[in-house]
Design goal:
The structure is a single chain. The protein is an alpha+beta fold. The protein has 2 domains: 71 residues; 103 residues, Cupredoxins -  blue copper proteins (Immunoglobulin-like, Sandwich), CATH 2.60.40.420. Helix content is 34%, strand content 30%. It contains 2 helices and 9 strands; from the N terminus they run ααβββββββββ. Strands 3-9-8-5-6 form a 5-stranded mixed beta sheet, with no helix packed on it. A hairpin with a 5-residue loop joins strand 5 and strand 6. Helix 1 runs antiparallel to helix 2.
Length: 188
Amino acid sequence: MDGLDLGVSYVLGASYVLYLRVLHGIGARVADAGDRMAGPSEKNPSVGRTLLISIVVSAIIGAGAGFAAGYLSSPRPATHTPESREFWVFTVVLPFNDSAPGAPSHDYFAPDRMTVFKGDTLAIHFFNTESEPENHTFTMDAPYAMNHVLAYNTTTTFSFTASVSGIFPYRCLYHQPTMTGWLVVLDT
């Protein structure tokens, strides 16, 4: 039974109880009037008003109970336990000549996005796959300030903790604008 069903059940039950109480009050008044057997019959407008108020109050209480039951039964977001995560980042060269004036750089990172949670420890294995003498860098600004220069056909590994959430670019200083990636640090 979900929160809405509980709220509706509560409204119907409370309305029925209040309705019986009002009818009991009317029955007692009718019995009193029958006992007196004198004078014109009395009309009591407060009975209808009492019935209306009882239904409105029951609806409000039932809606509140239904909302509370639904809220309490909904799943809570899980908290993240910091983990150690490894990423392998490769330099990739597209097969075209980028030496022509105005041509973009033919280098890029693969992957160009790493997603972690705040508090995770990252180990990044950076591979420069160039077969010709061309260096690349893995450079980030604050709060993860680093600059790892890597000669062609070599590898390095470095690690750090993702302590600040947000989206942070990493790039090669020599091959902009195409050689850029993104570190996405999610809140826990």
